[in-house]
Specification:
- This protein has 12 helices and 8 strands.
Length: about 400
């Protein structure tokens, strides 16, 4: 009885996290548009305030020129853009390359103290009412600034979440195939989150806030984008999702590089849950609590553990019943799990052999990111995750 209850509980967590929440969210958005269309946020394309394009950099010499040139090509009045670069501990010549551009405002610190410290330090130099954060290794869509400021024309919006796009290639490795699909699904959920109420967090590749809403964040913070954006949402402001404002970057070089990134994100997710525990109070935050719990907390903390524990519980349950025939649902489900893990294992084999078969890479990537999440949870709980970012190599 205990194993049966545990089996169905774990399965429910997984189905709701990866399928059920998206379906319920989509249905609620349809109902809102049908019956409460007037409550949909409205925006103006004529809004054109000053903005600050804020970039932090640590040893990004290889990306500086393409990032700066991309920034200058964005469709927005140049006299209304403050190009602010904060360099933290760079010793590869990054500040020297930046100094070649007179339009840039650069504040360098020789000591490396982490991205969040750099952001806290850099915000003191922001002169514009809107600050747009972007990573130095990403390329922004030409209309990104205009798309972002249009959303800020509505006073209810305090933060804008841009879209992260993975540049895919025909002969894609497992990391690219899996990461590309993951971000397409994540973008769809974010769009519906925003349509219903508010997006749940933003990605560091491209997001923006009202400067007046920024408050210094703990310097050991691992996921600066989530903490900053969700704390603004806690104040009652909306996080608007803007897919037409996007940042492009290539996928991780391979699954091993992606694994490093996902472990850090998972550790940061657990840290975020502890630091934003008040966000789990529905009486204070309303529907945002349900969105946050369903979209982030379950995926960060519960689903990865449930995935692997389910396999063990399923095995014990069938062994207890001593019925391994296909007519037994639990036995059949166990065989299906075995097949899925075998397909993922084949994806690992093909990846190492450099054989490009996307049908095997996606299951492999799914298992890998959940494995990374478990490692990230453990790393955070035992205090092994450092604040300094170890960059993943990109394709």
């Amino acid at each position: 009885m205990i194993l049966t209850t545990l089996f169905w509980g774990l399965l429910l967590i997984l189905v709701y996290t990866y399928v059920g929440y998206g379906i319920i969210l989509w249905l609620l958005v349809k109902l809102k548009k049908l019956f409460f269309n007037k409550s949909i946020l409205s925006f103006s394309s004529d809004y054109e305030p000053d903005v600050c394009l804020f970039v932090t950099a640590f040893n990004e010499k290889d990306y500086i020129r393409q990032k700066v040139e991309n920034s200058f090509q964005l469709d927005y009045p140049k006299d209304k853009i403050q190009y602010l670069w904060i360099t933290d501990g760079s010793d590869d010549g990054t500040p020297d390359v930046l100094q070649q551009y007179n339009e840039l405002e650069i504040h360098h610190q020789p000591e490396r103290r982490g991205k969040m410290h750099a952001m806290n330090r850099g915000m003191k130099f922001v002169k514009a009412p809107i600050v747009i954060f972007s990573d130095s290794n990403t390329i922004l869509g030409k209309d990104s600034i205009r798309e972002i400021v249009a959303k800020f024309s509505n006073p209810e919006v305090g933060c804008i979440a841009g879209e992260k796009r993975i540049v895919e290639h025909k002969a894609e490795a497992a990391a690219g195939a899996g990461e590309g699909l993951y971000w397409k699904m994540e973008s769809w959920i974010k769009h519906n989150d925003s349509e219903l109420n508010s997006a749940v967090g933003a990605v560091g590749e491209l997001f923006a806030i009202r400067t007046e809403l920024f408050e210094d964040v703990e310097i050991d913070t691992l996921l600066d984008d989530f903490i900053i954006s969700l704390r603004i949402a806690q104040k009652g402001y909306k996080i608007a999702y803007t897919p037409n404002a996007y940042a492009e970057e290539t996928a991780s070089l391979n699954v091993q590089e992606e694994l490093k990134r996902k472990i850090r994100i998972a550790a940061g997710g657990i840290q975020t849950i502890f630091r934003l525990k008040s966000l789990l109070n529905p009486f204070k935050n309303g529907i945002l609590t349900w969105q946050y719990f369903s979209h982030k907390v379950l995926r960060w903390a519960f689903a990865p553990l449930s995935l692997f524990i389910l396999f063990i519980v399923n095995l014990l349950l069938v062994a207890q019943q001593q019925n391994w025939t296909f007519g037994n649902f639990y036995a059949l489900f166990f065989y299906v799990q075995c097949i899925c893990y075998c397909v993922a294992l084949m994806g690992w084999y093909f990846e190492n052999r450099k054989i490009r078969l996307k049908a095997f890479f996606v299951p492999y990537y799914f298992v890998m990111i959940n494995y990374a999440s478990v490692r990230g949870i453990l790393r955070y709980l035992i205090g092994k995750q450092t604040v300094n970012w170890e960059k993943s190599k990109r394709a």
